[in-house]
Amino acid sequence: MSRKRVLQIVGVFALLVGLVWIGQGTGYFPYPRESFMIDEMPWAYRGAALAFIGVVILWISRRM
Questions:
Q1: Omega before residue 42 within 30° of 0, cis
Q2: How many domains does the chain contain in total?
Q3: C-alpha angle with apex 46: 45 to 51, nearest 5 degrees?
């Protein structure tokens, strides 16, 4: 597998996980109900950082 493809997979995964963390941290995605992340803003901030990193990785992979 090429380095570009690996970066694309990692970037998409980081972006999607970051978006889920944002949703759980803000309470817009309360699944699973017993999750410790629901309505906890630090997780929303971490999710935003991870989503940003994912976008940067995707941008880097597009320039390869």
A1: no
A2: 1
A3: 100
Tokens of 4: 């570009």
Query: Is the entire prediction scored with pTM above 0.70?
Result: yes
Question: For residue 8, what are the CA distances in angstroms to 23, 28, 29?
Answer: 23, 27, 25
User: Which residues span the domain enclosing 32?
Assistant: 3-62
User: Which tens digit of pLDDT belongs to each residue from 23-39?
Assistant: 999 999 888 889 999 99
Rounded CA separation 12/8 (Å):
6
Q: How far apart are CA 60 and CA 22, in angstroms?
A: 23
Look at residues 2, 17, 28, 1 and name the one whose alpha carbon lies nearest to residue 55: 17
